[in-house]
Amino acid sequence: MRHIFILTIILFSSVSSPLFAQEDNFIEDYLERLENSRKYLITVAEMMPEDKYNFKATEESLTFAENLLHIGYAIDWHSQSLLGGRESRDWKTDTIFKVANKSKEEMITLIDKTFDETINLIKQFDINQLNDELDYFGLMRSKRQIFSLLADHITHHRGQMLVYLRLNGLVPPRYVLFQ
After folding, report:
1. In the 8-state DSSP scheme, what is residue 179?
2. Which of 49, 73, 149, 165 could form a disulfide linkage to 97, CB 3.0–4.6 angstroms apart?
3. Which of 127, 146, 155 is nearest to 24 (CA)?
4. Helix (H) or strand (E) holding 135
5. How many C-beta atoms lie closer than 10 Å to residue 82's C-beta?
6. 136 in a domain, yes or no?
7. Residues paired with 134 in a beta bridge
8. Rounded to the nearest 5°, which phi and psi values hold at 117?
9. Which of 109, 110, 70, 108 is nearest to 91 (CA)?
10. For the segment 97-132, what is each residue's pLDDT rounded down to a tens digit?
11. What is the CA radius of gyration of the chain?
12. Confidence at residue 92, expressed as pLDDT on a 0 to 100 scale
């Protein structure tokens, strides 16, 4: 009987260890991706001349600056509120992520700080919560999916900013892999 117990423990540990390692790697991989995304976004933001920060492709589009700060708002909301449980900021009344009279430098500093806060939260994230579900615009999504949705949202709005660079005669920075 004792041999069966020992074999059961050995079998369980050989199966469960790789599963737990995959969860650990998820966070490590995501943090690497997020750092690369931060560097690339800041490079894009730095490339656009400050006098072009109010440029927008069409009347109904966001400006370059609005896209940048919308990314910041979304990073904050996905990480701090959805993953971290903090009460959500109200997009309509929030002033932190509104362009208002912010300079290019102030906006870039805000984005960098928001990435720092998000990275710190994710470093402390309990991987046992990855499968916890929450309401995401009427759809039930796991926190693992929230990580992906955040990355997609950054890429979506940054892509618009890359087009804005081209429309202003600027060549966007070379794409950075793994973001």
Report:
1. -
2. 73
3. 127
4. strand 133-136
5. 19
6. yes
7. 141
8. -60, -40
9. 70
10. 999 999 999 999 999 999 999 999 999 999 999 999
11. 20
12. 87
In a domain, 12, yes or no: no
Residue numbers of the domain that contains 92: 24-167
CATH number for position 132: 1.20.120.450
For the stretch 104-121, what's the b/e string if a residue is b when 16 or more beta carbons lie within 10 angstroms of its beta carbon?
A: beebbebbbebbeebeee
Q: Determine, yes or no, domain membership for 61.
A: yes
Could you tell me which residues are beta bridge partners of residue 133?
A: 142
| DSSP-based three-state secondary structure for 60 | coil
Tell me the per-residue pLDDT of 52-103, one tens digit each, with 9 for 90 and over.
999 999 999 999 999 999 999 999 999 999 999 999 988 889 899 999 999 9
Within 13 Å, how many C-alpha atoms sit on residue 65's CB side? Answer: 20
Domains of the chain: total: 1
Q: Is the alpha carbon torsion for 37, 173, 54, 50 positive or negative?
A: positive
Contact 154, 74 (CB under 8 A): yes
Helix 104-123 with 64-76: angle, nearest 10 deg: 20
Q: Is residue 48 part of a domain?
A: yes
Find out whether 71 and 107 touch, Cβ atoms under 8 Å.
no
Give the residue from 37, 68, 32 showing the smallest Cα distance to 150.
Answer: 37
Residue 21 is predicted with a pLDDT of 47
The pLDDT tens digits of the residues spanning 124-154 come to 999 999 999 999 999 999 999 999 999 999 9
